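Why this split exists: single-chain examples teach little about how molecules sit against one another. For that reason, every record in the complexes split bundles all components of an assembly together and asks for one structure covering all of them. Below is a record exactly as it appears in the raw files.
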Amino acid sequence: LASEIEGLFAAAENENFEDGFSSVLSVELLRLVLQYGDAALEIVSDLIFQNRAAPEVAAEALRCLGQVQSQVTHEVRRRLLERSLASASHVTRDGAAIGLSNLRDPRAIPALEAAAAREDYRLLRANMFEILERLKVSPP
Amino acid sequence: VTLVLRLIRQSRWDSPGEFDWLAAGDIPADPLADFANTSENCLSIWLLDDTKNDLDNVVAALAASREKADKLDYVLFPQSHLDAAGIEVCVASGHTPDEQVNEQHRDLTHLSAAKVCALATSVWHENLEIKRVDEQTVVRLVADAIRRGRISLEKLRPKLRDDVRFHAADDRGGQQKPK
């Protein structure tokens, strides 16, 4: 499984991600997360936090993780997304924020508030505040 | 004043402040990617009037052309930037499910590397808005456009059609998207 996900991430470095269209990375990652659950997420987590994923690839993966329709992996995905808000790359942090926006879980509010407070990229910080506003009016 | 809308990736235009490593008048390379992705030396843009009254229609139409609901990033800038860069603007109908919005589409043609650089530089230094429309708002705008008869639900791709249907059901307090 690890080599499959690592290969997927490596191949994705040559992929041109386009908003509104599924990427090979997102389709395959979705399949693997639904099939292997937390085991797949642990490998994705290692790739991101050990800086073995290119920022654009990490961002696409994080966006995808916010869209997975799986209650079983919800908590692990939320924690992974929250932790990614502290990434050194603003592109990766952007992907994490979008992922959390798509996850629509108000329990991410404290992590997003902390991330927004320390964010120095202006547009990203504004996006985080907008996500926070939406989460605060979301039903629990 | 006529405004120009170009789809971008917002993170390419973001910064923590001034770039102290840039020469005066120069711009970072990342934003260039949103203007350098030409095809046959052409780029796609959308014209809006300066009231921006038609902005939601254009955003809905662009979103409705996609495979699935997703955030939509754009930059708005005055058309004068095109004139200043000596760029040719050709009438070319768009390919969205909204016929009226399609009339607002233009092709920037005969683009050279110098013209693309000049345009990206102008837009970096002077634009009206760099904006992200989040996924939920995108779905709402598409659903509104369908309700107003501007877009036909049948013209949407299946995944996006499902997202819009879930939104409509959610609005009625009914069906929730499964987790």
